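Weekly structure sync, notes
Attendees: PL (lead), two postdocs, one rotation student
Agenda item 3: pending single-chain targets
PL asked that the sequence for the first pending target be pasted directly into the notes so everyone works from the same version. It is reproduced below exactly as submitted, 440 residues in total.
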Amino acid sequence: MFLFPRLPLVLFSVAVLWVVSAGFGAPAPVAALEKPLVVAQELHARAGLPNFLSKANKPGAALKVAYLGGSITAQPGWRVKSLELLQRTYPEVKFSEINAALGGTGSDLGVFRVEPEVLVLQPDLLFVEFAVNDGGTAPEQIIRSMEGIVRKTWSALPECDICFVYTVTEALVAPMLEGNFPRAASAMEGVADHYGIPSIHMGMEVARLAKENALVWKAKLPANDEEKTALEGKLVFAADGVHPHVETGHALYLQAIERSLPEIRSKSGNPAAHSLPLPLAADHYQMARMVPASEATLSSGFKALDSAIDPLAKRFPRLKSWQTAAQPGDTLSFQFKGTRAAIYQIIGPDVGKVTVTLDNQLPRTVTLFDSYCTYHRLGTLVIGTELSDTLHTVKIEVSSEQPDKGAILTKRNEWVENPGKFAGTAFHPGALLLVGELRK
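Predicted structure, written out during the meeting:
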């Protein structure tokens, strides 16, 4: 059971190892796929971007570029700059953006988001950026999710090209200083190799400057000549060591893409629909789907929140509607056949605790409120992972037990100055995240 806060730092996931038998020609158990860290390299062009580049060479074409990632992609940085680069490079083509960046989320939510937020809009090119937010995620979980993103994309849009891009932070740079990719990017490289997907590590130059002591990880941009002199010619990467300054860190990210394009062009063959080989991992997440919470069985205390008009739901328009319940005893229940289940929800000052029952297991009480719940944000309540691929029953009940919100907030020196703001035991589900299918 784990909550994924919408935070600017790395995202940690729960992964339970699933052991499978592998026969001749069958995909291997994912545990066997773990490899040593991959040697760091800015570009692996692999099969290139043949379909996208072929279209880009046709004057008058209209192409959509999708960006699926976390808060670094959400910034007006490499995402905006790379689209501008493509427009400058192919001035007779009209490029438009599909922005599917969501702060504080990793590939294990991205695999559920890719279909409703990206694929329905039919992109021609998909950039995937999760190496930072997957920094604390088990490699086997990364492989399941990233492979799911690839297989879902090429099943729906076989002519859509994909490019993995990796970013870096002060906390994750250590392996790169020794010449290796961090663990998350290394796991993603296994997926990229298997499917011939180009990958660009946009942080190689950042790591080089850091190793040469020519970079400051955390600082404001210099505002005057005196502050510039104090930096002794060093580049200021970010204000927090994570989210690059648009003018500096993101500029380095763009330069990596710009350097990579010529080789990607040279490695791109004739355009053709992408075919799906045997999976890399038997337990990949191609079957990941986001099902509206309204399709679960809801007790009478639940109320729908329309994202077009409700003040809370309007802040989270990624879903057309949300459900809310606040009375102890209100329940959400469903059955599904599959291997993973979670709830996509809004958490914030008014949430409380829920009791979760999976199959015949003992009920577990989960505190939805955490030390960042001074505002509303998106979160994920994981119910079960790497389950047997059979029929499962889930029941979630709003608890009458109120968490000690003052004590929780104190952990981050967030004092409760307005206790009324934090009253309530609400539960705000929006969707069921299932690797499998809902059963009525």
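Discussion points:
- DSSP finds eleven helices and 18 strands in the chain.
- The chain has two domains: 30-267, 288-439.
Action: rotation student to compare against the earlier draft before next sync.
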